[in-house]
## 1
Amino acid sequence: MRLTLALPFALFAFACSSDDDSPKGGTGGGAGAGGSAASGGQAGYGGSSGGAAGSGGAAGSGGAAGSGGAAGSGGGSSVPTLLSETGLYSDIASETLAPGVEFYQPAHVLWTDDASKKRWALVPTGAQIDTSDMDYWVYPVGTKFFKEFSRDGTRVETRMLHKTATDKWVMIAYQWNTDQKDAVAVPNGVQNASGTPHDIPSTADCDTCHGKMTDRGLSFTAIQLSHGLTGTKLSDLIAQNRLTHPPAGHFTLPGTAAQQAALGYMHANCGTCHNDYSFVFSLVDMRLWLGTASLSTVADTFTTKTTVNKPLTAAGASAGATARIVPGDSSTSDVFLRMNERGTARQMPPLGTEDVHADGSALIKAFIESL
């Protein structure tokens, strides 16, 4: 079964950079009559120009999801209703991965409030990833990324990013059913999903982070795949001739082990917004996305060059902050203070987390004191 998502084109556009709480779904559509996503029913989809919402039955009880009005001239993006239809698994019951799907791990993990995660990538057979810019990979059409979230022992959701055209990505989350046999698309997101504190993002929320890069992949990248962990890594992609401009080998972050961990933490948790391809860079010229050609020393990284003793340019700096990073003094460093805020406009990262990450905070504090 497939459903038609008639969402605004801007949510899937390659050049889109949304940083607000955009309307969820089409501007004219509401939830399907079969029940809200939060209660287990599959939401219907209205057209972006005012089409009616679907009226399908509740997911899990056999009713089909509604397919709303057409977007624009009548076309919508066809998206699988069920995770079992996305191509992640050849057999979801046994969790057998489909041919070509590869498990991978990033070297540096995004903090999402104690949620544990698994990740998979599917790069079309015979296609190469454009790595002419080693810091910002461009993936071939047909690429899919999947990320599964579990919280407090409960498997809650699996997200899919699917590159359907040169300038389009479909981004959607699937909430696992109570019986854990399949997961259902929830494009409007779900708060406190499956009885846990975990919030499933809407399609618009997905774009808030993924839309600030040249392409949408955030953890299947040169620095993130430079490690000795299990799963696909950079050396594998090089050996298999899957990169258009392969590097000589893995990239090593500079400094002590603690400094490397802190640089990697900011790369994963902050760099997806704070990079020079993001519109955020025009407002705050801070770059926390590491560059592979600037890793000779800690001082050589873009992270230190654009933060240490740099004046505050963002509105609403944290109380007591005197610079982005003040060497040796985390109490006056805005980067550190913001990552210890929640529920305010100063919170960093701005979404995906409701709890301060104590270990991450300690990493950055130690990093600042080491400078």
## 2
Amino acid sequence: MQMNRWAGQNWPISAACFDGEAVRIRLSGAETAIAAAQLKLGGDILPDNEAASFWADVREQRLGFFQGETTLWRLSLASATAQPNLPGTWFIDWGGALRWLKSDQPVETIFQAAHVRGGYACRFRSPLGGEFQPLSKGLWQLHRNIKLAFDPHGIFNVGRLYEGW
């Protein structure tokens, strides 16, 4: 994946995504570093207002990809992980570490595809509601300990992620 190769270079890349048609990157930092990266990487430069609007639309899921009734899945995988062979439409964000999938595949199929690649999935938006992939016993205990450290009285988002806490 090109985004992962670029991330391994000394480029001032602060965001990267692939929308199925084009890789889009955001460069941030010193003007000289940005100019050198743009010269080497090439591509079109968006005016500041268009670029800011695009990245805000990615962050807030306002792009056309995120619209519609098809179930939207969110998969968190290592950025160098091969793309799961799942039917549907993909939007790749966070330089490859966050992958959005629009697909009507069964929940078990999506969870298994993420699991065998060392990642996690959740049904993010669907007429069936959201659903988080079950965690292993060790990760469940880690999540619980973190929640207890930040929310010792158990008052925030009770039952949202895991039943009973």
